[in-house]
Structure prediction request, 951 residues.
Amino acid sequence: MKRIIPAFFIMILPLLLYGCWDRVEINDLALVVGDAHDQAELAGKTGIETTFQIANPAVMSAGDSSSLGAGAGGREGAGSFWTIRETGETIREAVSKMNYRIPKQIFLGHERVIIFGDKAARSGLTPFFDRLTRSRESRDTKFIAVSKGDPGKILEQESPIFQSTVLSLYNIFLTKDGWQGIMAVNMADFVYRLSTGVTSPLAPVVELVPQTSLTPKEKQAGNINTVAVTGLAAFDTDGRLVDYLNERESMGLLWVMNRAKNRVLTIPHFIGGMEELVSLNLVKAKSKISVSIGDDGLPFFEIKTHVNFDLLEQFGGRREIVDVGMISDFEKTAGSKVINEIEAAVKKSQQLNTDVFGLGEEVRRQHRREWPQYKEHWKEIYPLVNVTVECETHIRNRELSVGAPGSRTEGAGQ
Amino acid sequence: MLHFLRSINSKAKKGGPSGPRKIPPPRKFKEISSNLADNEAYLRQEFANISDIVFRRFYAGEVKFLAVWFDGLINNRVSQDIFRALMLDIPDKRLLEAPKEKRADFINLRLMPFYDTQKAIDLEEIKHWILASKMVLLVDGCPSGLMIDAENRPQRPISEPIVEPTVLGPHDGFVENIRVNTALIRSRLGDAMLKSEDYIIGRRTSTPVTLMYVADIANPGIIEEARRRISRIDIDGVLDSSYIKEMIQDRVFTVFPLIKGTERPDIVVADLLEGRFALVVDGSPQVLTAPSIFIEFLQATDDYYINPMVVWFIRSLRYLAIFIATNLVGLYVALITYHQEMIPIPLVFSIAGTREIVPFPVFFDALFLLIVFELLWESSIRLPRVVGAAINIVGALILGEAAVQSSLVSPTLVIVIAVTAVANFALGSGYDLALAVRIIRLAILAAGGILGFYGIALVSLFFLLHMAGLRSFGVPYFEPLAPLISKEMKDTIYRAPHWDFNERPALIAGKDTTRDNTPPPAPPANNSFFNARSKKR
Prediction:
């Protein structure tokens, strides 16, 4: 009995923390899949404007299961997703005001993407992350994005292909991370970079872009936009947005950060005075940054990138690719293109004074003893450091054909 | 609560007679009289008011005889043979010439061409034989009687086991007759070391019970303990082996089966060879084997007859099945009411969507459907076969389809309950375990509905601790997993090929622990025997 009574109490005590009174039926939850935050003017003060995208599962399940769901509870004409906007001095306050209009309990456990407006990003995102990291329901794996315009508009836009723009974005981040210039950044990444005080956080930029082709129905509904990821935004170490990187700079960044996974690189090739275009596809890329301390006391960096390509397309090609010299020509051109991209990214980041590559971190790792003296002045040092870039490229495979149809081996036929 | 259970437990342990009791209980002794009329009078008095008893008086030559038996329990042809032998074939002079007191012996040794006869000098014993469905013959002038085994009790033929059917392997099952059952065992295990001890249990039913074990394999301590527990039994009637099971198991308050009952002679023989003992009870097709361990109930006979490469998969399916059967409903309810963030997003939409118009909380929905399933289970056992089809239609169509259409339950929940129901019967040969799983499932559902995953963890922990503490005739219930005996892992989630079962379970078998010395199959690498033959051609 001496042992049973304490054991019994140990089992009973957690019931106070957790139990029946915390139970909520899943259908009583307003499942928030994405939210957008921006700065807003509130009677002379600056405040917060928050937009939520809330799922309406009853409508979704009613669509295809007429016999089973029995029409579910959704109203005729209600959309699968509902957006709601509210302002307040803090995020929590804005959310609490939403409760006047949301008939269910707000649940943030399924947030997938958070979009910040340009204004909020430029004034600093640090205050916004307090709610996101403090909340028990909130997950670290949700994706962060920045919108150049009103972020609420992105949530309000109907997605032409997916259930909602947020889920469309979520899927892009999930499946296209490292493709071309797309980099998915989740909350944990972002907050970690913020916490280092040296490395600059990054976030992908999302925008509404006009659809390139419209069905009559979409034209009639005026539904002419779709959401797209259009590059990266660089922040300073206090979480303030400094500037946007363009596509080329974003691509350069991905090479160095070892995040590039899928990339089509098109290079020109001159043969007999005529230009033909060759598209290469990334198979594997690996970069290494080595740091050494120069004579002037500043660290300098050597970035060595090793890239393997497949040959995907030879547009307007008239010669079969049987010649090793030709392939090494391609490799050389591709290598210089990669170097260009990396250098552009480095240049931009030094201009903006945002250490997006984590070069400071590299110094800390490789020159632990010297790092403390740089750490304090890293902001002044970073724009001055020297970075050299080398790239080794290989083309391994040219898929099924040796040359484009109609192409000739050199000399044959002529 | 715990205290309450404990007090009941200790009471149960203390109960019953203090010392071993003689079986059958001591009877009075009444000598057979030389006067046949006296004997008849005594028997008629003892069997007064019994209409289905037959007293047949007849003469063989000049000697008066009395045959007594219960109508319907005796093979008519055999009894006719007896009468023919005595009444028609002899007026044997030697019978008359033999001394009167030796007449019974004379008939026994010379005139009864039947395989089992026995002489008795006690009228009480005669009475007992009559009750044990034997025929009894009394001779005038002789102070002893004869028992003739012409027993022909109504009985079912040997057939495919009903509870444990199998695809491969033997298809005969035990029946209700103890002699047939022991014969099924003995015919498979022709070893003089297979011992059998008879007990008569039941003050009124006088049910024969046979304890069987292989003397040089079984642990003598366990056998002695089995004898002790059987001899403690003092009950008026034993109608099935489960009576015995409840009276000799180690722990009273547990839902888990501690002694295995099986209809299959091959399982019993396998258990005997592992050092277990078997209890054959007359009138029950379920033969008990013990000590039993938990994983036995997740094994099926087929496992030993099919390719061992496949067995690991089937066995892991069963382990999955017991997890699903116990936990799935509880986990579903806990997920829906407490841990919504753990459901993947497309699933959360579809579940939430279908639950939108369901008026009841998911816990009551789950409980409702589960009870409907249990009711269907119960009713399908009890129902007369003619009405069975009706219940099937009601169960399948009305309760499944209509419950969803009327939005009383969500379709996802119907699938969850259906999977649970299917898993409940995929547990191998243990119907006993399937019953235990019913209770555990309810407990886990309640815990999941009240406390979420924390509650499920708590209840699972409780059951695991409880099971780890169980013993069957002293053998830990979780053996060989806890205590871990790595050598015996050969028959847990996978089964080793038969040539690799080298040792018997150490905690169960007492003496001869070597099961098997077969080397692994090793055909010659170059197939020379084959080439030699083809060359000759």
